[in-house]
Design a protein that fits this description.
alpha/beta; 28% strand
């Protein structure tokens, strides 16, 4: 069977892994790539191309970067299939209907659980021990379409978003490449989701990283793992945002929010147990390890942090 002409929709690293596998495969021919517009990132607000765009350029695949697909039209209708992975923009029904063999999404959860924009992050934040990847046919509703295949994946106790997403992308690619021939040859009957069991995730903001020290050290550690590297977890100290860049659980008993230093180590009390702070960064300053931070801020130890709710930038 000749390769089916395909449009790919994706943006971040997870999607780039899927795209690379499709480029290397003998199943599809990726003729165009849709990715989000270049964005300004970091403190210096440098314009950055998405991982998917960089990869597409490497292979001289045409790239489209519309701000919205609401009024977008393909230059040609000569595409049999669309494949979507971590794209980040809504694909309207009028675009989905352009592809005779459908638009297939590689989604980072075991649907119908964790629909939406942050399924991998929220599985970790919620302390799940297992997640997975779903290959599904897209319809006009978010992560609502019928399922073609699924694969389960264990969440290790120290997985962060980065490590888990890497493993899930690799698993998702294998699942996709095994599913595509079956789907294209009419050997898969799509399975309707059990919609009443659906749970939903949202687009994350900096505010989601604010720590509530009344929570257990397990809950705070899960928040750290799920929200690393972005938006990260943070608290407020002396009117400035204090990012906790690297932490681990500790059984030291302290009042919630209480800072305690011992042997150049920093601990903060939680609702149960505490967390040890290995690396942190005060707003406007460089990241530091615990010892360097304590050397520079003698008044830090002994402070009791308060829970805050502040507007994000």
């Amino acid at each position: 069977m000749s390769k089916i002409k395909t449009a790919f929709f994706g943006t971040q690293d997870f999607a780039a892994t899927i795209l690379q596998g499709l480029i290397d495969s003998d199943i599809v021919s990726v003729e165009v790539v849709f990715t989000q517009p270049d964005r300004k990132t970091g403190r210096k607000q440098i314009v950055e191309e998405s991982p998917v765009k960089k990869l597409a350029k490497k292979y001289n695949i045409p790239v489209e970067q519309p701000e919205s697909l609401k009024d977008f039209r393909l230059q040609t209708s000569d595409f049999g299939l669309a494949i979507v992975a971590q794209y980040g923009l809504i694909i309207p029904k009028v675009v989905l209907n352009l592809f005779p063999r459908g638009a297939i999404n590689v989604h980072g959860s075991l649907l119908p659980k964790y629909r939406g924009a942050s399924p991998i992050q929220m599985a970790i934040v919620n302390g799940e021990k297992e997640t997975g990847v779903t290959i599904m046919l897209m319809d006009e509703k978010m992560d609502h379409g019928p399922i073609l295949s699924q694969a389960k994946l264990k969440i290790d106790t120290d997985d962060t978003y980065t490590t888990l997403a890497h493993k899930m992308a690799a698993e998702g690619l294998i699942l996709l490449l095994n599913t595509l021939p079956e789907w294209l040859n009419g050997k898969i009957e799509p399975r309707e989701q059990t919609h009443e069991q659906a749970t939903f995730t949202k687009l994350l903001t900096k505010e989601d990283g604010l720590i509530d020290f009344n929570k257990t050290n397990e809950e705070i550690y899960n928040q750290y793992r799920g929200l690393t590297p972005w938006p990260g977890i943070w608290t407020m100290w002396e009117g400035k945002r204090l990012k906790l860049l690297e932490i681990r659980k500790s059984e030291k008993i302290l009042p919630a929010g209480q800072i305690f230093s011992e042997n150049k180590k920093i601990f903060i009390g939680c609702g149960h147990g505490s967390v040890e702070i290995l690396k942190l960064q005060l707003e406007g300053k460089l990241a530091m390890n615990a010892q360097t931070f304590l050397n520079g801020y003698k008044n830090f130890s002994g402070v009791r942090l308060q829970n805050h709710s502040v507007a994000t930038e």
